Amino acid sequence: CNYGLRSTIYLALQKDDTLISINEISTNLNIPFHFLTKTLQQLTQKGLLISTKGPKGGIKLARPAKNITLMDIVLAIDGSKIFDTCILGLPGCGVLNPCPLHDEWSQAITLMKNTFNNTTIAKLAERVLSENLRIANTNNPEFLHK
Length: 146
Prior knowledge:
Elements: H1 2-13, H2 22-29, H3 33-45, E1 49-52, E2 58-61, H4 70-77, H5 81-84, H6 102-118, H7 121-131
Antiparallel strand pairs: 1-2
């Protein structure tokens, strides 16, 4: 899921609506090409990315970054399992039959859901630029200076 999040932020950072090659993203974000390809296929299948093949092909966001939330990316790649599963992995954990961490985990899940639902890819891309934050394994990514 982190590859999907980082890649969509990368796409949101591009100055125009051009198609970006998966190889470019893989190289600039230091993500293994084959893992990235599978991740981006999932996002394309869920309608979050547009993909075209061929020599001038590539990928781009399917809609404006301000209309794509972290929750969209998480659900497209990992599904809702993280929000529905006991932190200790116990089946049937819930209000009637809780684990020792049920109450705390429920509060954390609520906070996580709110954050994921209210944070857009555009907001994160803006922070990358305004606060000089990184989305790659480097402190000075060249792709920000195109």
